[in-house]
Specification:
The protein is of the alpha+beta class. It has eight helices and twelve strands.
Length: about 260
């Protein structure tokens, strides 16, 4: 099973890019972030024509998440992260596919630091941890996947000294990410490439992609139940170089369910 995540940065504007990548990569399950489209504007006909069924939670102009599946039924569990009924931002959608819990997320950016947006980010992470702790306790096959807006360590960012007070790299969020790993979640890409410089995002400015001045924000975390099934993975960096592409690149893993 090939599972991928891709922050498309506007699904209507990037639809040709998305369809081209789907045809090339042929993932079985895809989690998308930053749809930037209301619910009724999701291009379901084009997605279906590409061979995928989908569930999605849109939002006008901002946010938005979706789960695509080829050949597997999607059973939606919920489309909001529990813990704050007043949170109306479409950043989370959870489903069961082939007996695996898929948690697709677009975690808040949190900038500027300090401020209410950073506080919202920390509270959102706390809610995420509470929900995902339940999967660990029940020993469920589960995947937390998407744009975390967290740079885990200094190897994950070009010139880390410039990022100390950025909400993506603040010590508070890095510790929160580490706490997930200590709970038992496996950072699949980093486990496959422990010492390599791997980025998933390159800013449009300053020729960041050409200079490989990037950051690693997009992660696929596996619960202990699934960790031994991780076979391969990578970042489709070349997609970022396509004309009119998102500023993120797709990230993928190959997973074999051993149990």
């Amino acid at each position: 099973m090939k599972i991928a995540t891709y922050n498309v940065n506007g699904i209507r504007a990037r639809l040709p890019i998305l369809l081209q990548w789907l045809k090339e990569s042929q993932p079985d399950i895809v989690c998308l972030q930053e749809l930037k489209a209301p619910q009724e504007s999701f291009p379901i006909e084009e997605i279906n024509a590409a061979g995928y069924n989908a569930i999605w939670h849109g939002q006008k102009s901002w946010n938005g998440v979706a789960i695509l599946s080829k050949g597997y039924e999607i059973t939606e569990v919920q489309r909001a992260l529990p813990g704050d009924p007043e949170d109306i931002q479409s950043r989370y959608i959870e489903a069961i596919i082939d007996q695996v819990v898929i948690c697709c997320l677009y975690l808040p950016n949190g900038n500027p630091y300090p401020g209410p947006k950073f506080d919202y980010k920390l509270s959102w992470i706390k809610r995420l941890k509470k929900r995902t702790d339940e999967f660990i306790t029940m020993d469920l096959p589960a995947i937390i996947i998407g744009d975390f807006n967290i740079i885990p360590t200094e190897i994950d960012v070009y010139k880390p000294e410039r990022w100390e007070n950025d909400a993506l790299y603040r010590i508070e969020v890095r510790k929160a990410y580490q706490a997930l790993l200590e709970k038992g979640w496996l950072d699949s890409i980093r486990s496959l490439f422990p010492d390599e410089i791997i980025y998933t995002f390159w800013d449009y400015l300053y020729k960041a992609y050409d200079r490989n001045a990037g950051i690693r924000l997009d992660h696929i975390l596996l619960s202990p139940y699934l960790a031994s099934g991780l076979k391969s993975g990578g970042v489709d960096k070349h997609v970022r170089g396509w004309e009119k592409s998102s500023d993120h690149a797709p990230v993928w893993i190959e997973l074999e369910k051993d149990k």
